[in-house]
Specification:
Helices cover 28% and strands 26% of the residues. It is of the alpha/beta class and 551 residues long.
Protein backbone atom coordinates (compact mmCIF):
# COMPACT_ATOMS: atom_id res chain seq x y z
CA UNK A 1 0.00 0.00 0.00
CA UNK A 2 1.39 3.40 -0.97
CA UNK A 3 1.68 5.91 1.80
CA UNK A 4 0.11 9.33 1.12
CA UNK A 5 2.44 12.17 0.23
CA UNK A 6 3.27 14.17 3.30
CA UNK A 7 2.55 17.89 3.18
CA UNK A 8 5.53 20.03 4.14
CA UNK A 9 5.46 21.62 7.55
CA UNK A 10 4.29 25.18 6.90
CA UNK A 11 5.62 26.20 10.31
CA UNK A 12 9.18 25.28 9.37
CA UNK A 13 11.09 28.58 9.14
CA UNK A 14 12.47 29.62 5.76
CA UNK A 15 14.32 32.85 4.93
CA UNK A 16 12.36 35.70 3.30
CA UNK A 17 12.23 35.42 -0.49
CA UNK A 18 14.25 38.00 -2.38
CA UNK A 19 13.54 37.92 -6.11
CA UNK A 20 16.43 38.43 -8.49
CA UNK A 21 15.43 38.84 -12.18
CA UNK A 22 17.31 36.44 -14.41
CA UNK A 23 17.95 39.30 -16.86
CA UNK A 24 18.38 42.50 -14.80
CA UNK A 25 18.64 45.07 -17.58
CA UNK A 26 19.77 48.63 -17.00
CA UNK A 27 17.97 51.78 -18.21
CA UNK A 28 16.60 51.92 -21.76
CA UNK A 29 18.66 54.53 -23.64
CA UNK A 30 17.06 53.83 -27.05
CA UNK A 31 16.21 56.91 -29.16
CA UNK A 32 12.48 56.72 -30.04
CA UNK A 33 10.21 58.54 -32.47
CA UNK A 34 6.49 58.98 -31.86
CA UNK A 35 4.34 57.05 -34.34
CA UNK A 36 0.92 58.17 -33.09
CA UNK A 37 -1.11 59.10 -30.02
CA UNK A 38 -4.26 57.48 -31.41
CA UNK A 39 -5.64 54.44 -29.66
CA UNK A 40 -4.01 55.12 -26.29
CA UNK A 41 -5.77 56.45 -23.19
CA UNK A 42 -5.67 56.23 -19.40
CA UNK A 43 -8.64 54.93 -17.35
CA UNK A 44 -9.05 54.53 -13.60
CA UNK A 45 -9.90 50.96 -12.62
CA UNK A 46 -10.33 50.00 -8.94
CA UNK A 47 -8.61 53.20 -7.95
CA UNK A 48 -5.56 52.61 -10.19
CA UNK A 49 -4.59 54.30 -13.43
CA UNK A 50 -4.57 51.77 -16.26
CA UNK A 51 -3.16 52.22 -19.75
CA UNK A 52 -5.79 51.19 -22.31
CA UNK A 53 -4.40 50.30 -25.75
CA UNK A 54 -6.60 49.76 -28.79
CA UNK A 55 -6.19 46.91 -31.22
CA UNK A 56 -5.44 49.42 -34.00
CA UNK A 57 -2.53 50.91 -32.05
CA UNK A 58 -0.92 47.47 -31.85
CA UNK A 59 -1.54 46.79 -35.53
CA UNK A 60 -0.19 50.17 -36.62
CA UNK A 61 2.98 49.84 -34.52
CA UNK A 62 3.71 46.40 -35.94
CA UNK A 63 3.18 47.54 -39.54
CA UNK A 64 5.45 50.55 -39.02
CA UNK A 65 8.12 48.36 -37.43
CA UNK A 66 8.32 45.81 -40.26
CA UNK A 67 8.30 48.57 -42.83
CA UNK A 68 11.19 50.36 -41.14
CA UNK A 69 13.43 47.38 -40.48
CA UNK A 70 13.38 46.23 -44.10
CA UNK A 71 14.64 49.65 -45.26
CA UNK A 72 16.65 51.24 -42.44
CA UNK A 73 19.49 50.22 -40.15
CA UNK A 74 20.66 51.34 -36.75
CA UNK A 75 23.27 54.13 -36.78
CA UNK A 76 25.66 51.95 -34.78
CA UNK A 77 25.67 49.25 -37.46
CA UNK A 78 26.36 51.81 -40.19
CA UNK A 79 29.20 53.33 -38.17
CA UNK A 80 30.78 49.89 -37.92
CA UNK A 81 30.61 49.48 -41.70
CA UNK A 82 32.26 52.86 -42.20
CA UNK A 83 35.00 51.99 -39.69
CA UNK A 84 36.02 49.09 -41.97
CA UNK A 85 36.73 51.57 -44.77
CA UNK A 86 38.85 53.65 -42.39
CA UNK A 87 40.81 50.68 -40.98
CA UNK A 88 44.29 50.33 -42.49
CA UNK A 89 44.35 46.67 -41.39
CA UNK A 90 41.19 45.80 -43.34
CA UNK A 91 41.73 43.83 -46.55
CA UNK A 92 40.73 45.18 -49.95
CA UNK A 93 37.92 42.64 -50.01
CA UNK A 94 36.74 43.69 -46.53
CA UNK A 95 36.53 47.26 -47.79
CA UNK A 96 34.85 46.29 -51.05
CA UNK A 97 32.10 44.40 -49.20
CA UNK A 98 31.63 47.13 -46.57
CA UNK A 99 31.39 49.80 -49.27
CA UNK A 100 28.81 47.72 -51.15
CA UNK A 101 26.77 47.37 -47.96
CA UNK A 102 26.79 51.14 -47.43
CA UNK A 103 25.66 51.74 -51.01
CA UNK A 104 22.97 49.09 -50.49
CA UNK A 105 21.77 50.80 -47.30
CA UNK A 106 21.55 54.11 -49.12
CA UNK A 107 19.36 52.58 -51.86
CA UNK A 108 17.13 50.72 -49.37
CA UNK A 109 16.59 53.94 -47.38
CA UNK A 110 14.65 55.25 -50.39
CA UNK A 111 11.80 53.09 -49.10
CA UNK A 112 11.22 51.20 -52.38
CA UNK A 113 13.70 48.31 -52.49
CA UNK A 114 14.27 46.35 -49.26
CA UNK A 115 17.89 45.91 -48.19
CA UNK A 116 17.74 42.11 -48.69
CA UNK A 117 15.63 39.94 -50.97
CA UNK A 118 14.97 37.60 -48.02
CA UNK A 119 12.73 39.96 -46.07
CA UNK A 120 12.53 37.51 -43.23
CA UNK A 121 10.25 35.76 -40.79
CA UNK A 122 8.28 38.28 -38.73
CA UNK A 123 9.23 37.81 -35.07
CA UNK A 124 7.54 39.86 -32.34
CA UNK A 125 8.29 39.86 -28.62
CA UNK A 126 6.07 41.90 -26.30
CA UNK A 127 6.36 42.65 -22.58
CA UNK A 128 3.00 43.75 -21.24
CA UNK A 129 2.92 45.68 -17.97
CA UNK A 130 0.39 44.66 -15.33
CA UNK A 131 -1.41 48.01 -15.65
CA UNK A 132 -1.96 47.67 -19.42
CA UNK A 133 -5.35 46.69 -20.83
CA UNK A 134 -5.92 45.80 -24.49
CA UNK A 135 -9.01 45.09 -26.58
CA UNK A 136 -8.42 41.39 -26.98
CA UNK A 137 -6.18 39.16 -29.06
CA UNK A 138 -2.83 41.00 -29.04
CA UNK A 139 -1.13 38.29 -31.10
CA UNK A 140 -3.70 38.68 -33.88
CA UNK A 141 -3.39 42.47 -33.92
CA UNK A 142 0.42 42.43 -34.03
CA UNK A 143 0.46 39.69 -36.67
CA UNK A 144 -2.03 41.62 -38.81
CA UNK A 145 0.28 44.65 -38.72
CA UNK A 146 3.22 42.52 -39.85
CA UNK A 147 1.12 40.99 -42.63
CA UNK A 148 0.02 44.43 -43.80
CA UNK A 149 3.63 45.58 -44.08
CA UNK A 150 4.47 42.57 -46.27
CA UNK A 151 1.38 43.03 -48.45
CA UNK A 152 1.77 46.78 -48.92
CA UNK A 153 5.53 46.97 -49.47
CA UNK A 154 7.90 45.33 -51.94
CA UNK A 155 8.71 42.50 -49.55
CA UNK A 156 8.98 38.78 -50.17
CA UNK A 157 6.68 36.09 -48.85
CA UNK A 158 9.02 33.40 -47.50
CA UNK A 159 6.72 31.34 -45.28
CA UNK A 160 5.51 27.95 -46.52
CA UNK A 161 2.64 26.02 -44.93
CA UNK A 162 2.85 22.23 -44.66
CA UNK A 163 -0.13 20.63 -46.41
CA UNK A 164 1.22 17.21 -45.55
CA UNK A 165 4.57 15.93 -44.38
CA UNK A 166 6.05 16.43 -47.86
CA UNK A 167 3.77 18.97 -49.60
CA UNK A 168 4.07 22.68 -48.90
CA UNK A 169 2.49 25.86 -50.21
CA UNK A 170 3.64 29.47 -49.87
CA UNK A 171 1.18 31.35 -47.66
CA UNK A 172 1.39 34.40 -49.99
CA UNK A 173 1.40 36.92 -47.12
CA UNK A 174 4.50 35.92 -45.09
CA UNK A 175 2.34 34.64 -42.27
CA UNK A 176 2.40 33.14 -39.73
CA UNK A 177 4.43 35.48 -37.56
CA UNK A 178 6.22 34.25 -34.46
CA UNK A 179 4.63 36.23 -31.62
CA UNK A 180 5.52 35.88 -27.92
CA UNK A 181 3.98 38.06 -25.22
CA UNK A 182 5.20 38.13 -21.62
CA UNK A 183 3.74 39.69 -18.47
CA UNK A 184 6.47 42.04 -17.33
CA UNK A 185 6.66 45.64 -16.15
CA UNK A 186 4.26 48.25 -14.87
CA UNK A 187 2.42 50.79 -17.03
CA UNK A 188 4.03 50.31 -20.45
CA UNK A 189 3.85 47.77 -23.28
CA UNK A 190 7.34 47.17 -24.73
CA UNK A 191 8.30 45.35 -27.91
CA UNK A 192 11.11 44.01 -30.01
CA UNK A 193 10.36 43.42 -33.71
CA UNK A 194 12.74 41.32 -35.81
CA UNK A 195 12.78 40.26 -39.47
CA UNK A 196 14.94 37.14 -39.42
CA UNK A 197 16.23 35.88 -42.76
CA UNK A 198 16.72 32.19 -43.41
CA UNK A 199 20.48 32.48 -43.91
CA UNK A 200 21.22 33.89 -40.47
CA UNK A 201 18.52 31.78 -38.78
CA UNK A 202 20.25 28.68 -40.15
CA UNK A 203 23.42 29.72 -38.33
CA UNK A 204 21.89 29.16 -34.89
CA UNK A 205 23.56 26.27 -33.09
CA UNK A 206 23.04 24.53 -29.74
CA UNK A 207 25.81 22.36 -28.31
CA UNK A 208 25.17 20.22 -25.26
CA UNK A 209 28.62 20.41 -23.72
CA UNK A 210 29.79 19.10 -20.36
CA UNK A 211 31.01 21.10 -17.34
CA UNK A 212 34.55 19.88 -18.10
CA UNK A 213 34.69 22.58 -20.81
CA UNK A 214 34.57 25.32 -18.17
CA UNK A 215 38.22 26.29 -18.11
CA UNK A 216 39.48 29.26 -20.09
CA UNK A 217 41.72 27.37 -22.51
CA UNK A 218 39.23 24.57 -23.14
CA UNK A 219 36.30 26.93 -23.61
CA UNK A 220 38.14 29.20 -26.04
CA UNK A 221 39.36 26.20 -28.08
CA UNK A 222 35.81 24.81 -28.15
CA UNK A 223 34.38 28.14 -29.29
CA UNK A 224 37.02 28.68 -32.00
CA UNK A 225 36.13 25.35 -33.57
CA UNK A 226 32.39 26.13 -33.47
CA UNK A 227 32.73 29.71 -34.72
CA UNK A 228 34.50 28.43 -37.84
CA UNK A 229 31.46 26.27 -38.63
CA UNK A 230 29.39 29.45 -39.06
CA UNK A 231 31.00 29.97 -42.46
CA UNK A 232 30.06 32.93 -44.65
CA UNK A 233 26.66 31.87 -45.98
CA UNK A 234 24.77 34.23 -43.67
CA UNK A 235 26.44 37.42 -45.03
CA UNK A 236 29.16 38.59 -42.65
CA UNK A 237 30.41 40.76 -41.04
CA UNK A 238 28.32 39.28 -38.22
CA UNK A 239 27.09 40.46 -34.88
CA UNK A 240 28.07 37.23 -33.10
CA UNK A 241 26.29 36.06 -29.95
CA UNK A 242 27.55 33.29 -27.67
CA UNK A 243 25.68 32.08 -24.60
CA UNK A 244 27.26 29.82 -22.00
CA UNK A 245 24.76 28.02 -19.77
CA UNK A 246 21.02 28.25 -19.37
CA UNK A 247 18.33 26.70 -17.21
CA UNK A 248 17.13 24.95 -20.38
CA UNK A 249 18.23 24.49 -23.98
CA UNK A 250 15.44 26.74 -25.22
CA UNK A 251 16.39 29.56 -22.83
CA UNK A 252 19.99 29.33 -24.02
CA UNK A 253 18.95 29.75 -27.66
CA UNK A 254 16.40 32.46 -26.89
CA UNK A 255 19.18 34.39 -25.19
CA UNK A 256 21.39 33.92 -28.27
CA UNK A 257 18.76 35.56 -30.47
CA UNK A 258 18.23 38.49 -28.10
CA UNK A 259 21.97 39.00 -27.62
CA UNK A 260 22.59 39.05 -31.39
CA UNK A 261 20.09 41.93 -31.58
CA UNK A 262 21.98 43.73 -28.76
CA UNK A 263 18.76 43.57 -26.72
CA UNK A 264 20.70 42.41 -23.65
CA UNK A 265 23.54 44.94 -23.81
CA UNK A 266 22.46 46.57 -20.53
CA UNK A 267 23.00 43.40 -18.49
CA UNK A 268 25.44 43.63 -15.58
CA UNK A 269 29.03 42.69 -16.31
CA UNK A 270 29.46 40.35 -13.36
CA UNK A 271 27.56 37.48 -11.83
CA UNK A 272 26.25 36.93 -8.34
CA UNK A 273 25.28 34.12 -5.98
CA UNK A 274 21.65 34.80 -6.94
CA UNK A 275 22.25 33.51 -10.48
CA UNK A 276 21.67 36.56 -12.70
CA UNK A 277 22.76 36.62 -16.33
CA UNK A 278 25.77 38.79 -17.13
CA UNK A 279 28.00 39.87 -20.02
CA UNK A 280 31.65 38.84 -20.02
CA UNK A 281 33.28 41.84 -21.66
CA UNK A 282 36.78 40.41 -21.46
CA UNK A 283 35.79 37.24 -23.29
CA UNK A 284 33.92 39.31 -25.88
CA UNK A 285 37.16 41.05 -26.79
CA UNK A 286 39.14 37.80 -26.80
CA UNK A 287 36.70 36.12 -29.18
CA UNK A 288 36.49 39.20 -31.40
CA UNK A 289 40.29 39.15 -31.72
CA UNK A 290 40.11 35.44 -32.51
CA UNK A 291 37.56 36.02 -35.30
CA UNK A 292 39.81 38.72 -36.76
CA UNK A 293 42.72 36.29 -36.87
CA UNK A 294 40.82 33.58 -38.78
CA UNK A 295 41.34 35.30 -42.15
CA UNK A 296 37.71 34.74 -43.24
CA UNK A 297 36.91 38.43 -43.31
CA UNK A 298 33.78 40.02 -44.74
CA UNK A 299 32.93 37.04 -46.99
CA UNK A 300 36.08 36.93 -49.17
CA UNK A 301 39.06 37.05 -46.82
CA UNK A 302 40.38 39.60 -44.37
CA UNK A 303 39.82 40.80 -40.82
CA UNK A 304 36.11 41.56 -40.52
CA UNK A 305 34.34 38.24 -40.02
CA UNK A 306 32.49 39.94 -37.15
CA UNK A 307 31.60 43.50 -36.27
CA UNK A 308 31.37 42.62 -32.59
CA UNK A 309 30.75 39.79 -30.16
CA UNK A 310 28.36 39.37 -27.23
CA UNK A 311 29.14 36.69 -24.64
CA UNK A 312 26.48 36.05 -22.00
CA UNK A 313 26.84 33.69 -19.06
CA UNK A 314 23.71 32.09 -17.62
CA UNK A 315 23.04 29.88 -14.59
CA UNK A 316 22.67 26.17 -15.36
CA UNK A 317 21.71 22.82 -13.92
CA UNK A 318 24.84 21.29 -12.38
CA UNK A 319 24.74 18.36 -14.82
CA UNK A 320 24.17 20.44 -17.98
CA UNK A 321 26.13 22.99 -19.99
CA UNK A 322 24.20 24.21 -23.04
CA UNK A 323 26.26 26.49 -25.28
CA UNK A 324 24.54 28.52 -27.98
CA UNK A 325 25.89 30.41 -31.02
CA UNK A 326 24.06 32.66 -33.41
CA UNK A 327 24.46 35.73 -35.56
CA UNK A 328 22.73 38.80 -36.85
CA UNK A 329 23.83 39.28 -40.43
CA UNK A 330 24.43 42.29 -42.67
CA UNK A 331 20.64 42.71 -42.86
CA UNK A 332 20.69 43.61 -39.17
CA UNK A 333 16.92 43.98 -38.85
CA UNK A 334 15.41 44.64 -35.47
CA UNK A 335 13.73 47.61 -33.85
CA UNK A 336 12.34 48.35 -30.39
CA UNK A 337 8.89 49.79 -29.78
CA UNK A 338 6.83 50.87 -26.81
CA UNK A 339 3.36 52.13 -25.93
CA UNK A 340 3.00 54.44 -22.95
CA UNK A 341 0.39 56.92 -21.76
CA UNK A 342 2.08 59.49 -24.02
CA UNK A 343 1.65 57.51 -27.25
CA UNK A 344 3.03 54.84 -29.55
CA UNK A 345 6.80 54.90 -30.15
CA UNK A 346 9.28 53.16 -32.43
CA UNK A 347 13.07 53.16 -32.27
CA UNK A 348 14.59 55.83 -34.49
CA UNK A 349 16.65 54.16 -37.23
CA UNK A 350 19.00 55.94 -39.62
CA UNK A 351 17.15 57.54 -42.55
CA UNK A 352 20.27 59.17 -44.01
CA UNK A 353 22.88 56.41 -44.42
CA UNK A 354 24.58 58.41 -47.17
CA UNK A 355 26.47 60.31 -44.46
CA UNK A 356 28.54 57.16 -43.83
CA UNK A 357 29.71 56.85 -47.44
CA UNK A 358 33.18 58.15 -48.32
CA UNK A 359 33.19 61.56 -49.98
CA UNK A 360 34.84 60.10 -53.09
CA UNK A 361 34.20 56.52 -54.19
CA UNK A 362 37.28 54.48 -53.47
CA UNK A 363 38.81 51.88 -55.74
CA UNK A 364 38.14 48.79 -53.67
CA UNK A 365 38.63 45.08 -54.16
CA UNK A 366 41.63 45.02 -56.52
CA UNK A 367 41.80 44.39 -60.28
CA UNK A 368 38.53 43.32 -61.94
CA UNK A 369 38.18 40.76 -64.76
CA UNK A 370 35.27 41.39 -67.15
CA UNK A 371 33.27 38.28 -68.14
CA UNK A 372 30.85 38.27 -71.09
CA UNK A 373 28.10 35.82 -70.15
CA UNK A 374 26.58 35.87 -73.63
CA UNK A 375 29.46 33.94 -75.18
CA UNK A 376 29.22 30.14 -75.39
CA UNK A 377 29.60 28.30 -72.08
CA UNK A 378 32.82 26.68 -73.31
CA UNK A 379 34.40 30.12 -73.73
CA UNK A 380 33.13 31.36 -70.35
CA UNK A 381 34.76 28.34 -68.70
CA UNK A 382 38.02 28.91 -70.60
CA UNK A 383 38.17 32.54 -69.45
CA UNK A 384 37.51 31.61 -65.83
CA UNK A 385 40.12 28.86 -65.98
CA UNK A 386 42.85 31.45 -66.71
CA UNK A 387 42.28 33.19 -63.35
CA UNK A 388 43.06 32.06 -59.79
CA UNK A 389 40.59 31.80 -56.95
CA UNK A 390 39.80 35.11 -55.19
CA UNK A 391 39.84 36.94 -58.54
CA UNK A 392 37.23 39.68 -58.57
CA UNK A 393 34.89 39.51 -61.58
CA UNK A 394 32.37 41.78 -63.28
CA UNK A 395 29.66 39.77 -65.05
CA UNK A 396 27.55 41.08 -67.93
CA UNK A 397 24.96 39.10 -69.87
CA UNK A 398 22.37 36.40 -69.23
CA UNK A 399 22.00 34.27 -66.10
CA UNK A 400 19.40 31.69 -65.09
CA UNK A 401 17.99 31.93 -61.59
CA UNK A 402 17.02 28.72 -59.79
CA UNK A 403 17.02 27.54 -56.19
CA UNK A 404 15.74 24.66 -54.02
CA UNK A 405 12.31 23.85 -55.49
CA UNK A 406 13.40 24.36 -59.10
CA UNK A 407 16.47 22.18 -58.58
CA UNK A 408 14.23 19.42 -57.20
CA UNK A 409 11.99 19.58 -60.28
CA UNK A 410 14.96 19.44 -62.66
CA UNK A 411 16.35 16.46 -60.77
CA UNK A 412 13.02 14.68 -61.30
CA UNK A 413 13.52 15.13 -65.06
CA UNK A 414 16.97 13.56 -64.94
CA UNK A 415 15.68 10.66 -62.87
CA UNK A 416 12.98 10.05 -65.50
CA UNK A 417 15.68 9.85 -68.17
CA UNK A 418 14.97 13.31 -69.59
CA UNK A 419 17.79 15.82 -70.33
CA UNK A 420 18.30 19.13 -68.59
CA UNK A 421 16.83 22.08 -70.53
CA UNK A 422 19.26 23.96 -72.78
CA UNK A 423 18.96 27.15 -70.74
CA UNK A 424 20.41 25.28 -67.75
CA UNK A 425 23.42 24.25 -69.81
CA UNK A 426 24.08 27.46 -71.74
CA UNK A 427 24.08 30.01 -68.92
CA UNK A 428 25.48 30.44 -65.39
CA UNK A 429 23.04 29.50 -62.63
CA UNK A 430 22.34 32.11 -59.95
CA UNK A 431 20.91 30.79 -56.69
CA UNK A 432 18.40 33.46 -55.67
CA UNK A 433 14.73 34.33 -55.20
CA UNK A 434 13.50 37.89 -55.78
CA UNK A 435 11.36 40.16 -53.67
CA UNK A 436 8.43 41.91 -55.36
CA UNK A 437 9.29 44.19 -58.30
CA UNK A 438 8.36 47.82 -57.60
CA UNK A 439 6.56 49.89 -60.23
CA UNK A 440 9.07 51.23 -62.75
CA UNK A 441 11.88 48.82 -61.78
CA UNK A 442 13.26 45.90 -63.76
CA UNK A 443 13.67 43.85 -60.59
CA UNK A 444 12.91 43.71 -56.92
CA UNK A 445 15.66 43.15 -54.36
CA UNK A 446 17.51 40.14 -55.75
CA UNK A 447 20.58 39.06 -53.80
CA UNK A 448 22.12 35.57 -53.64
CA UNK A 449 20.88 32.80 -51.40
CA UNK A 450 22.95 30.24 -49.50
CA UNK A 451 24.81 27.97 -51.94
CA UNK A 452 25.14 25.01 -49.58
CA UNK A 453 21.48 24.05 -49.93
CA UNK A 454 22.13 23.10 -53.57
CA UNK A 455 25.34 21.11 -52.94
CA UNK A 456 23.74 17.69 -53.40
CA UNK A 457 22.59 18.56 -56.95
CA UNK A 458 25.91 19.70 -58.38
CA UNK A 459 27.63 16.47 -59.44
CA UNK A 460 24.47 15.06 -61.04
CA UNK A 461 23.70 18.31 -62.87
CA UNK A 462 27.27 18.91 -64.09
CA UNK A 463 27.46 15.33 -65.35
CA UNK A 464 24.37 16.19 -67.44
CA UNK A 465 25.98 19.40 -68.75
CA UNK A 466 24.27 21.91 -66.43
CA UNK A 467 25.33 24.11 -63.50
CA UNK A 468 28.79 24.52 -64.99
CA UNK A 469 29.06 28.02 -63.53
CA UNK A 470 27.19 28.64 -60.27
CA UNK A 471 26.78 31.94 -58.46
CA UNK A 472 25.62 32.33 -54.85
CA UNK A 473 26.92 33.16 -51.38
CA UNK A 474 28.81 31.20 -48.75
CA UNK A 475 31.07 28.19 -48.55
CA UNK A 476 30.26 24.78 -50.06
CA UNK A 477 30.82 21.11 -49.32
CA UNK A 478 33.88 19.21 -50.54
CA UNK A 479 31.61 17.35 -52.97
CA UNK A 480 31.15 20.58 -54.95
CA UNK A 481 34.90 21.11 -55.25
CA UNK A 482 35.31 17.50 -56.40
CA UNK A 483 32.50 17.85 -58.96
CA UNK A 484 34.00 21.05 -60.40
CA UNK A 485 37.38 19.34 -60.77
CA UNK A 486 35.81 16.31 -62.44
CA UNK A 487 33.50 18.20 -64.81
CA UNK A 488 35.39 21.48 -65.31
CA UNK A 489 32.94 23.70 -63.43
CA UNK A 490 33.22 26.83 -61.29
CA UNK A 491 31.52 28.30 -58.24
CA UNK A 492 31.49 32.10 -58.02
CA UNK A 493 30.71 33.95 -54.82
CA UNK A 494 28.50 37.02 -54.88
CA UNK A 495 28.17 39.58 -52.08
CA UNK A 496 25.44 38.44 -49.73
CA UNK A 497 23.42 41.25 -48.19
CA UNK A 498 23.50 43.79 -51.04
CA UNK A 499 20.23 42.89 -52.79
CA UNK A 500 18.94 46.45 -53.21
CA UNK A 501 22.20 47.57 -54.81
CA UNK A 502 22.10 44.65 -57.27
CA UNK A 503 18.49 45.44 -58.23
CA UNK A 504 19.18 49.16 -58.62
CA UNK A 505 22.40 48.95 -60.63
CA UNK A 506 23.08 45.46 -62.01
CA UNK A 507 19.86 43.63 -62.94
CA UNK A 508 18.31 45.07 -66.10
CA UNK A 509 15.65 42.53 -67.07
CA UNK A 510 13.81 39.69 -65.31
CA UNK A 511 11.41 37.15 -66.84
CA UNK A 512 10.00 33.79 -65.80
CA UNK A 513 11.35 30.83 -67.80
CA UNK A 514 9.56 27.92 -66.15
CA UNK A 515 7.53 26.85 -63.09
CA UNK A 516 5.73 30.16 -62.41
CA UNK A 517 3.58 28.36 -59.84
CA UNK A 518 6.61 28.31 -57.53
CA UNK A 519 6.40 32.06 -56.99
CA UNK A 520 9.77 33.52 -56.05
CA UNK A 521 11.26 29.99 -56.46
CA UNK A 522 10.36 29.86 -60.17
CA UNK A 523 13.13 29.62 -62.77
CA UNK A 524 13.95 33.10 -64.05
CA UNK A 525 16.12 34.55 -66.81
CA UNK A 526 17.87 37.79 -65.87
CA UNK A 527 20.06 40.21 -67.79
CA UNK A 528 22.85 41.77 -65.71
CA UNK A 529 25.49 44.44 -66.19
CA UNK A 530 28.68 44.69 -64.10
CA UNK A 531 27.40 42.12 -61.60
CA UNK A 532 30.15 41.68 -58.95
CA UNK A 533 31.51 38.23 -58.07
CA UNK A 534 34.66 36.37 -56.99
CA UNK A 535 36.07 32.99 -58.07
CA UNK A 536 35.63 30.72 -55.06
CA UNK A 537 35.99 27.17 -56.48
CA UNK A 538 37.79 26.52 -59.77
CA UNK A 539 38.26 23.54 -62.07
CA UNK A 540 41.64 22.60 -60.55
CA UNK A 541 40.53 21.52 -57.03
CA UNK A 542 41.13 24.97 -55.52
CA UNK A 543 38.62 26.29 -52.99
CA UNK A 544 39.05 29.66 -51.29
CA UNK A 545 37.08 28.56 -48.25
CA UNK A 546 39.02 25.32 -47.92
CA UNK A 547 42.11 27.43 -47.22
CA UNK A 548 40.20 28.94 -44.28
CA UNK A 549 39.05 25.52 -43.00
CA UNK A 550 35.48 26.34 -44.00
CA UNK A 551 35.34 23.98 -46.98
Amino acid sequence: MNAPTAFPDQQKPVPPYKHTPLFPLGPDTTPYKKVTTEGVRVETVLGKEMLVVSREALRALSEAAFGDINHYLRPGHLKQLRSILDDKEASDNDKFVAFDFLKNANIAAGGVLPMCQDTGTAIIMGKKGFRVITDGDDEAALSEGARDAYLRRNLRYSQVAPLSMYEEKNTANNMPAQCEIYAEGDDAYKFMFMAKGGGSANKSFLFQATPSVLTKDRLLAFLKEKVLTLGTAACPPYHLAIVIGGTSAELCMKTVKLASARYLDALPTHGSADGNAFRDLEMEQEILAMTQSLGVGAQFGGKYFCHDVRVIRLPRHGASLPIGLGVSCSADRQVLGKITKDGVYLEELEHNPAQYLPAVEQSLGGEVVQIDLNQPMKEILATLSKNPIKTRLSLTGTMIVARDSAHAKLRERLEKGEPLPDYFKNHPIYYAGPAKTPEGYASGAFGPTTAGRMDSFVDQFQAAGGSMVMLAKGNRAAAVREACKKHGGFYLGSIGGAAANLAEHCIKKVEVVEYPELGMEAIWRIEVVDFPAFIIIDDKDNDFFKELNLG
